[in-house]
Amino acid sequence: MSSPISRQTLGDLLRRSRQRYPNKLAIRCGSTDWSYAQFDDVSNAFARGLAAQGVEVGDRVAIISRNSHAFAALRFAVARLGAVLVPINFMLSAEEANYVLQHSGATVLCVDSGHADMGREAAKGTKVATFIWMPSEAPTEPVAGMLTFDALCQPGPAPERELDGRLPAQLIYTSGTESRPKGASLSHEAVIAEYVTSLVDTEIAAGDTLLHALPLYHCAQLDCFLGPAVYAGASNVITGAPTADNILKLAAANRVSSFFAPPTVWIALLRSPDFDRTDLSQLRKGYYGASIMPVAVLKEIQQRLPAVRLWNLYGQTEMAPIATVLKPEDQLRKAGSAGRPAINVETRVVDDDMNDVQPGEVGEIVHRSPQLLSCYYDDPEKTAAAFAGGWFHSGDLGVLDDEGYLTVVDRKKDMIKTGGENVASREVEEFLYRIPQVSEVAVIGLPDPKWIEAVTAVIVLKAGQTLTEAEVFKACDGHLAHFKTPKRVVFIDALPKNPSGKVVKRDLRVRYAPAA
Question: Do 10-155+163-394 and 415-512 fold alike per CATH?
Fold first, then answer.
């Protein structure tokens, strides 16, 4: 263990910001305002309550909830106990969430009112023994039979525990090519290294007011923006409703200076009838990720928000998550690029033998960084494969130009990025194969003006069978999260395959992209 004198954990960051800015607004959510002193006090109080429920170092504490002030407090309370945060996508089905709870071994589950029933269903057969009701942005009634956030908060300092930055801080589940997601275990040191990257390369500063509208269960909002903003001592406005109308209203009312969203949300803002009559004069920093921003949209943002500087962030959960950054001065000059490696990251593009490919040649993107995950939880084989050759294999294919700018050209793992969410095609395929009429299926992403990529199922039927698109949608209902459910279904006589029998999805994308 490291010396307490030099300790660096996530819980320490909030305490230091409290010392620097005790009376400054730290968190605003609905009618709740917390100064940094109050935020620190609430996080300590909630840590004491969790400890009273038996939460020890290394225990898993899961949450299924929309964004709230309580979510932010939980993040730091769990860190101060040396426990491990397990944020779960609230759009998953109970069946999908059950797997995460089972695999992680979570013993505590926090839920808001809107996800209480799903949480109870998901927890069946797991180690979850404690259910905690979390308040929301808008007032809601506590759920009968659950402990409450307010009752658990016990004023006083957090329990003193011997902690180390190498301890796991969070376990975030990421979809891969397999039918089941993998749990990326990230230490305090790794997450804090990524916070430093955010502070340096995206210029988050104490004078900023950030609007956090995208889900905090996702590491992009949690670790690229909320965590670094707390580290810097910035002010944070939190909402669980990422609609264009709500975002515009909150941005104007709170004089927001910094905002992140995937391209789909930026497009929705531009198309809102309220956009031109909303005062966004304080907005100076805009961020996007999850997919490339169309050039036409980049130009429109620059025209309609001329004071806003834009950043494109590329990475993945295992990188905590920023790997490369395309900065404001390069947005149009290098349109479509993911930028250059961030300050704490080394990035290469290599062939199958780990040799660097030449500029302009396609290879696999690999990284080396203190931000990296420690392991895939309880999966030594996938961990070893991911770190083969001493570098982390992203699974993405890319090209470097002669200036060192990276362009992501394909996803080796056939990941679909739809509306800011990652969808593993194999996971959707595994489910669609349960439909009795289906002989073969390939799931791909096709261009879409709303989703950027729309999950599309290309299906070959068994001889003599019939099936409609509507019947496919109905079969998915309740079993697949909405964002994983195909938005389109194409029926085909045979899937294109190479000589070894592998489906050539690139051919399907080329064939159906024009119609999409």
Answer: no
- The conformation of residue 177, written as its DSSP 8-state character, comes to S
Q: What is the CATH number of domain 415-512?
A: 3.30.300.30
Fold of 10-155+163-394: Rossmann fold (3.40.50)
> Are the beta carbons of 88 and 173 closer than 8 angstroms?
yes
List all residues 6 or more positions away from 335 whose beta carbon is below 8 Å from its beta carbon: 295, 298
pLDDT at 176 over 50: no
Q: Residues of 251-289 as b/e, b for ≥16 C-beta within 10 angstroms? A: bbebebbbbbbbbbbbbbbeebeeeeebebeebbbbbbb
> CA-to-CA distance for 422 and 428, rounded, in angstroms?
12
Per cent of the chain over pLDDT 70 is 96
Any idea where the domains of the chain sit in the sequence?
Answer: 10-155+163-394, 415-512
What amino acid is encoded at 167 in this protein?
L
Hey, what amino acid is at 92?
A: L
Q: Given the structure tokens 């999908």, which residue do they identify?
A: 96
Helix H or strand E encompassing 79: helix 69-81
Q: Tell me if the pTM is above 0.90.
A: no
pLDDT digits (tens, 9 = 90+) for 301-326: 999 999 999 999 999 999 999 999 99
